[in-house]
Design a protein that fits this description.
mainly alpha; 83% helix
Length: 99
């Protein structure tokens, strides 16, 4: 469900950005969802997995790296939505696709 919801919101951003328009409303909705749902899921997952720590160090390192990459991408999108980082629509599309 989480992936479907992110994809739906991301597709709205991509439609506008791929047409060369800045998707202000669509990007704000995506960033809000990422903050409210996705980051909460990441925190819950980390809490559940890290507190038991029955995984190998490599497994935990991969998970930490994936979560860090996700957090950095969400932060980049949040900055773009707030106008603090200027991206061209094509750059925004690439970042959203990486998400």
């Amino acid at each position: 469900m989480l992936r479907r919801e992110v994809t739906s919101r991301a597709d709205r951003v991509l439609r506008e950005a791929d047409e060369g328009r800045w998707p202000a409303g669509e990007l704000a909705a995506l960033v809000d969802y990422l903050h409210l749902e996705v980051l909460r899921q990441v925190v819950d997952e980390e809490w559940l997995l890290f507190r038991t720590a029955r995984h190998t160090a490599d497994d935990m390192a991969r998970l930490r790296a994936d979560h860090l990459e996700l957090r950095l991408t969400i932060e980049e999108l949040a900055q773009a939505a707030a106008g603090g980082r200027t991206l061209r629509p094509a750059q925004l599309s690439a970042t959203v696709r990486d998400l």
